[in-house]
Design goal:
Layout lengths: L12 E3 L5 E3 L27 H13 L14 H13 L3 E5 L2 H11 L7 E5 L5 H8 L3 E5 L9 H6 L5 E7 L8 H11 L3 E4 L7 E2 L2 E2 L6 E5 L12 E5 L2 H11 L31 H11 L2 H19 L6 E2 L12 E5 L5 H10 L5 E2 L23 H5 L3 H8 L1 E5 L6 H24 L1
Parallel strand pairs: 4-5, 4-6, 6-7, 7-10
Antiparallel strand pairs: 1-2, 3-11, 8-9, 10-11, 12-13, 13-15, 14-15
Length: 437
Amino acid sequence: MDGNNDAPAPSPLRPVQNGSELPEQLALHGGRPVRRTPWPTYDKGAVFVHTEDEDAAIRAVRSHLYFRYDHRPANETECGRFEDELCRYFGTRHALAVSSGTAALALALMGAGVPPGSLVACPGFTFVATPSAIVLAGCRPFLVEVDDDLRMDLDDLRRRWRPEIRAVMVVHMRGFAADVEALSAFAAEMGVPLIEDAVPALGAELNGRKLGTFGAAGAFSTQSDKALNCGEGGFLITDDSTLFARAVALSGAYEGRLRRHFPHGEPPLTGLDLPLLSLRMDEIRAALLRAELTRLPQRLALFHRNYAHVSAALAGLSGIAVRRPVAPGAYLGEAFVFRVPGGDAGWFARALRAEGIDARNIGADDDLNVRAFWNWRFLYDSADPGEIRATLPRTARLLTETVDVPLSSNLTPEDCDDLVRAVRKVAAARETALVGS
């Protein structure tokens, strides 16, 4: 990093001879970037994995027992132990380790008995895995607008409710809790299950209660950029034994193996009337995740520390609107998300990248970001992005204004200072350009 890390971050403004100030020249325009070292992200190897985690995975490899349904009782396998530990962590009756977060979402819908062909409400701002999981479960996504803080808009859902909607899938997108308490009450009012897509929010809480425990089931991912990381994988949690049994059977517990998940009694169904989809987790991934789970509180604390550092330093900065949590602390902290009202968020993101900060404009025309609903072409008859945007105009406008910066738990306070300085520098240059135009 440039400069003395113990010194305060320099001002993004520089004095000129007449005593006024001008913005520091942007790297985008040939100036010196805030940082020259790569911004730490999972795809560059900035993952929270310790020697003990590696040892656990190697132990599983050396066991030669990679299939979760081997000769051992369930509570002696890595998958079985991981599921027991998840139940204790979340305070739920059941947990099922599977092959991905998408699989967990689809299994939750199928386990809840949502009929094929049904509409499933979900927000227009989410990762493409959410509507994909709905399709995988044989259902049809019904997209709902989001509010200014990019949360599923309950008012829009209520206004456009249709009897064909047979489930609500709420998403805690980019680690920020949705207003899941209100949505849970609404789903109960409508007589449909609420499924929580907590894939991007593993470990986050709302009012002291862990996300994923508010609905009929919660689904999580253990892909490489998640709070628990085994490259690929996921799990679902639930208190509903019938939903759980259906999900287990569908995931691939064949020839009586369903009974292993009910050690204290018979399962509520045989599973023979359900297809076997082979969505299981293997023993090597489960061993790695079990080791990582012991340090999850440490990683969550780092996420919160980094997010608090950045959000406090940039609160109230003119020209940007920092995403607000639905309640104090109701976020994971693995992303810093803000809007640039006025439509030049694409330029803002490019300027941040030139300063050495990884940033994306969610709704950029030149970036096929699959968090933007108009890039889910498999849902639409039209291939025209403009026509698709018009179906959710408010969400389209907000995503066009949105900038997303990943915050690794491996960030140092100095890294956070670099981000703060870069955002201030770009915002100051933008404001000066607007005043001068």
